[in-house]
Design a protein that fits this description.
Layout (H helix, E strand, L loop, with lengths): L5 E5 L11 H15 L3 E7 L12 E11 L3 E11 L6 E6 L1 H4 L16 H19 L5 E5 L5 H7 L11 E6 L7 E2 L3 H5 L12 E2 L2 E3 H8 L2 E4 L2 H6 L10 H6 L4 E3 L27 H13 L10 E8 L5 H11 L5 E8 L1 H13 L4 E5 L3 H10 L2 E4 L9 H7 L3 E5 L2 H6 L13 E3 L4 H17 L1 H13 L4 H19 L3
Parallel strand pairs: 1-2, 1-6, 2-5, 6-7, 7-11, 11-12, 13-14, 13-16, 14-15, 16-17, 17-18
Antiparallel strand pairs: 3-4, 4-5, 8-10, 9-10
The structure holds adenosine-5'-diphosphate and alpha-D-glucopyranose (GLC).
Alpha-D-glucopyranose binds next to helix 1.
Length: 493
Amino acid sequence: MQNKLKILICASEAVPFAKTGGLADVVGTLPKELAKLGHDIRLVLPRYYMIDKEKYGLKEIPGAMGTPLGVVGEVWCGVFEGKLPDTDIPVYFIEHEGYFGRKGIYNDENGQGFMDNDNRFAFFSKACLQLCKKLDFYPDVIQANDWQTAAIPVFLNTDYRNDRLGKAASILTIHNMQYQGDFYEGLMDVLGIGWEHFNFLELEFDNKVNLLKGGIYHSTLLTTVSEGYAKEIQTSEYGWGLEGVVRERANDLYGILNGCDYEEWNPETDKYIAKNYSIKDLSGKKECKRDLQKAFNLPVKDDIPVFGIVSRMARQKGIDILAEAIYKLFDFNAQFVLLGDGEVWSHFYFGDAAHKLPDKMGCYFGYNNELAHKIEAGADFFLMPSRFEPCGLNQMYSLRYGTLPIVRATGGLNDTVENFNEKTWEGTGFKFNDLTAESLFDTVGWAVYTYYNNKNGMKRLIENAMKKRFTWEESAKKYVDVFELAIKKRKGL
Ligand code: ADP
Ligand code: GLC
């Protein structure tokens, strides 16, 4: 083994404790693989109100912890300790009633971002570092994830630079460039690191404080969640204004594809689906399809293609393109099932479509993990017409379940799905390039055609898809390589 590293992972969500998207899947799974590789790994999360202390057996670490937060002053909070389920990996929870003692992670019940998200996550980022001191745990490397913890590398280079903690290398992992944590300039006073850092290289962007930008500038090294996305965020199409800042650090940026949690997503053992199945015996998949059709009140038929969608309904996911195409897609002899939570208009729009054509489409709006599993197992195809997709996990789940992904060729989708080659029968799904309703329609049409008229081609595609693996083990090894490089760089070696 390489050196045993002391690693602290800081994030705003992780399964099973709190989740709004794929970030939680990654943060809840990567530590397990790092631990298997022999490293000392610990996780820090906010103790949101919905995280049940009893259920997870969280124990309070005695003594309140103080966190100096600029003009806000010393913020006192509690720290609870638990474990990542079925592991020995410590998870620390920062508890502060004012910041986290409410419903919701980032948004209120109406989907509005909390007004104090700037202070909440500036505080959390700082508290992660204070925690190290409290625990007398001095990590070799600290991984921050997305804008919510992007202030950590900034603090390490400023407040803590001359502290023992300041020796730690930092990694900022970008899961999504769209969300940058940009706030009014007064946040500088809360960060308390001095206004000299409010400049166009570090934290200032468009006259606002941009936490992601600060993190990109200050972190020892950067990663993002696919090789494709690592290239894309250096372009104006995908950089959301920060492409120049990313380009400045292009040599320090690594694309590491997320893995898929094959313990949770495995048709052979999945406890949520009607019948388990494997590549050797697909008969259970038929049962799952019937079960899915029933769950969505669709006519139960074996010989019609079912298209599944599980999505955080946001523009990123191309739901506007899907909305534009949906009534045309109904011309195909096919069924559609949609599980989604997100932009309110989309609930009304797709709900209305399903209401008008209940034989064609079924919708469920809200968050439902069991239903997500049923869709992966019961559908024939899985739709992801994303505008951009840093990695994407659902297409990986789909592959494992032999549910052929239909994706826009972007970011991680492009890296993980191979287009069907009708001559050689190679490939694992169907891809399109143009972000238009026409392209989506044509590609769905190609899939429908293949389903009805190229049964052997379909069979091969399903086999190819089910054999694909994107393991966390492989990704974790790549993270360790980057961590070691960062540690060397921080030491000036
Ligand atoms: P993103 O993080 O951009 O939303 P990913 O594909 O990385 O996209 O991850 C999405 C994760 O959230 C997957 O685990 C997916 O199954 C899950 N998910 C998304 N929407 C829902 C929903 N409405 N119900 C259940 N699971 C969902
Ligand atoms: C983000 C991205 C998604 C990625 C996930 C985990 O939410 O939108 O593509 O899979 O983070 O890295």
